[in-house]
Amino acid sequence: MTAALLPRVGIGVDVHPFSPDRPLWLAGLHWPGEPGLAGHSDADVVIHALCNALLSAAGLGDLGTQFGTAEPEWRDAAGTRLLTETVRLVRDAGYAVGNAAVQLLGERPKLRERRTEAEQLLTETVGAPIALSAATTDGLGFLGRRDGLAAVATALVFPAR
Question: Residues annotated in the binding site, as ranges?
Fold first, then answer.
């Protein structure tokens, strides 16, 4: 099999500190009663990590490359808007998304109550299966101190042509 026909894998990471004066958006869902995250857009670490993984897999760089903070049209942009545009870029580059997995890292909020809802939204937005999981750091580091959230994602794309 030639390299042009092989699937490609990307890894994405995103980290944001909490910002109590902002709403919390995670995996495209609003989380009322939880402190938000600081960032140029909505700071949805789950979607940002997923976008980074998809862009990496397609050889398109990362969120900063595609939607930099110098671009005013992306200020306060919804993560779902960034994800939709990322999927378009991946497809325009000649790839189809096979699947992806994202793990949220932090002490709160607890993902379990809304995991299925989040997976459905992400899967519909991407047009491919997206698995979502979460883990704590058992009180270690900035995540354990509840200073912010992080997410790590992997994505598989394959040539669509």
Answer: 14-16, 40-41, 48, 62-64, 142, 145
